Amino acid sequence: MTQADPTTSTVKPGPAPKRRKVSHVKAAAGLLLKESRRILKKHAARIAAVPADAIRESVDRLERQREAGAWEQVEDECERLDELLHQHASFARKSAARETIENIGIAILVALALRSCLYEPFKIPSGSMMPTLRSGDHIFVNKFAYGIQIPFTTTVVGGFMGAPRRGDVIVFRYPVDESEDFIKRVIGLPGDTVRVEGNKVSIKREGDADFEELERTKLPEKCLDDAGESTVPHCALYEEHIDGRSYVVRYMSSADPRLGGQRRFGEWTVPPEHFLVMGDNRNQSHDSLAWTRQVEAVTADGLLGVKDLRDLTPEKLFTLSRPDETNTREDSSYDHVVYMADHASDAHELRLELWRDPVLGTTPVFETLVAQLSTPATDAAPTIKRGSFADLWNVPGIENDSQKARLARLKAAGASIGEVAWTRGEVAYEAVVQLPSARAVLQIRCGLAVCRKDLWLADQIAEVVARFDRDRSADARALLEGDREIRYTPHWTSRGPRADKFVERSYGPAVGPAVRPATQTPEPTAAGLVRLRAWRAPDEPETFLRDAALRAAGSSREQAKQIIDETFDDAWLARDDDKFTFVRVDATAQVVFVLECGEQRCASEADALTLARAVQARVPAASKDRSRLPELLTPSDLPGWKELTPTTPPPERDEYDRLRLDGSIRDAAYSVDIEVWLRPIEGLEIKRAALAAEITGGAPDEGVAPGAVSGPLSVGQGTQFVFAAPATESLVRLRCSSGLCPSPAEARALATRAYQKAQDAGNFIDPTAERPRPYVPRGNVKGRAERIWLPPNRFWLPVR
């Protein structure tokens, strides 16, 4: 059989190849051209010259055909170019896996860009933003509201797009642990000072002088739990307003920690590029007011404590404070404390002594007090003025309405006041006031810092008298009030039971006109009366009772006869036409007694002294046992005499009480200021030299520490020291005011104590201290919360 000629043989054609869609061809051509150009650019040297030229020619034809729209030819050329690349440049082509990975990577980058720069979903983890947001809510956070943050950094570009405003709800990285995201409301902007006092929030904006309290309105709605179903007890809702914006917050009305509530107090000044934030669930939010971090920190009070100050200064009561505490304490390598002494000030003292219907009579008590008015510490005799109450306060030419009202009050009080005696000493006024209608006498001492002139003393007297007129049984502590701006320590002498302090027994002849019948006839005459009045441990000074008793008898120490013998020392005998009056002060037993003996019983001085010695013999027993006070004078001492029944029952409470208000002041004149730096950035010696250079007139003081420098604060204001403690890499500045340190010696003793304690880090360095970290850095802010998209019943609600 002859073999057929292939050039002349005929072959039955097969089916035509199926053509792809034009869109697919376009896409394939574009990718193939891009790949070919990349290979020719990077790997042409590794391909033989002839195949490389064939690839270039195929690329040129493909471009011309694509431009001409000859898509069937483009498809064929794509297959030829793909075959050439497969045969001669397969080493440079991407695998399908690599292509897939790259496409996925691009998709991830696009998603990250959208998430980082546009919107991000966020789930609310807790109820700290109740009622605005509930635990479990899903929200959208606008990431470009405040500019665009470069991913994985704190750098923000496009800040011109906006900045957080007061009232914005923001999402941010928690400053204490930046792996966590928090959501809170912006309250303080950079430069603001925010003050929180329980449920009250105030803001002092940058540049303003005063605080502005945030306005809020209580709402009638009840607080609900996270599910929005059950009512939360002890909780109230308020609509709060800030910069023209309104939102709802809630406060727990109970501060009981078992209910999760917490009342917060403090003041925070927001630094540049930071924000102060709070949760809307104010008492149950972990926010700027609560954030702390654990650090190594110094405490200046560890170098000089209250015990050291009590040891080295005359003052005993101190109050410690840290200026601008919340902000300063963020720097754990620095601490600053100020001790203010509560210094007793005689110029602020107030004192009231009051006698109600005194048994010795108002006039003897008044005159005795006038005679005992204190004498100023000068050689000159005191100027004691006596007159009516109007003489004290009368100021002519008053036209001001408020002054007229003041004088009207003084006139009203004057209706109850009889005679007044007063004097002005070096540190205080003293006044004695007689109240005839009330049968009372009062004495007032008023320091010159409170009563600067006569009119101010009159004000004090008028206030006391007005209160006494309203309630004449009131104690002194209800009658005298101190200035609320002064810290007073009250000392009240109680009105104890009268029977414990005082006894009075009267006797008359058993027969004759001195006997009082049951119908209560008047008391017998002085000649037919024996009366004992005795005080045991009296609250009044014993010498005052002695002098008042002599005045009541119409005598005085100048006129009476002093009795001094083996029984008596401070004893006095006065005599008038009807009776003897014997007055005795037994200082050892703390007993004062007054024995009046009419001439019917004591015809002579010897009779009076004999009876007085009988009373004195029982004084020691009565001084030890108050129930034996009536035994000082008994019927057995007066045979044929009978005890008289009082015409009116004696009062149950003692006639006298006293209130002293000791004023204490705190000011810069009685303070110690201590600052300590741990490992200062500029170095210990450079910092020490810089602080020393600030002391005008400073000089080395090696007696405190090596390299120490001391000098005056200013003329007459105190002394300061600067010294370093290299053993603990610390630096100390101590400033002591003139009140506590009147000379450099006192300040040097304090500085020496502080340097000694600075040698041991355990005294003032806490390696695990908690320090506030209250602010959100600008770079930590991720965006503004705008919409709630879950749950469905709250879908697309705006975040107010």
Write the layout of secondary structure elements.
Blueprint: H1 22-43, H2 49-68, H3 71-88, H4 96-117, E1 119-123, E2 138-142, E3 148-149, E4 156-157, E5 169-173, E6 181-188, E7 193-197, E8 200-204, E9 212-213, E10 215-218, E11 235-242, E12 245-252, E13 265-269, E14 274-278, E15 292-298, H5 306-312, E16 318-321, H6 325-328, E17 334-341, E18 343-356, H7 362-371, E19 385-388, H8 389-393, H9 401-414, E20 419-424, E21 428-435, E22 440-447, H10 454-470, E23 487-493, H11 498-501, E24 502-509, E25 530-536, H12 542-552, E26 561-563, E27 571-575, E28 579-586, E29 591-598, H13 605-624, E30 641-643, E31 656-665, E32 671-678, H14 684-693, E33 699-700, E34 709-712, E35 718-725, E36 730-737, H15 744-758, H16 761-764, E37 765-772, E38 775-777, E39 781-790, E40 797-798
Antiparallel strand pairs: 1-2, 2-39, 3-4, 5-6, 5-39, 6-14, 7-8, 7-13, 8-9, 10-11, 11-12, 14-38, 15-37, 16-17, 17-32, 18-22, 18-31, 19-20, 20-21, 21-22, 23-31, 24-25, 24-30, 25-29, 26-27, 27-28, 28-29, 32-36, 33-34, 34-35, 35-36, 39-40
Helix pairs in contact: 1-2, 1-3, 2-3, 7-12, 9-10
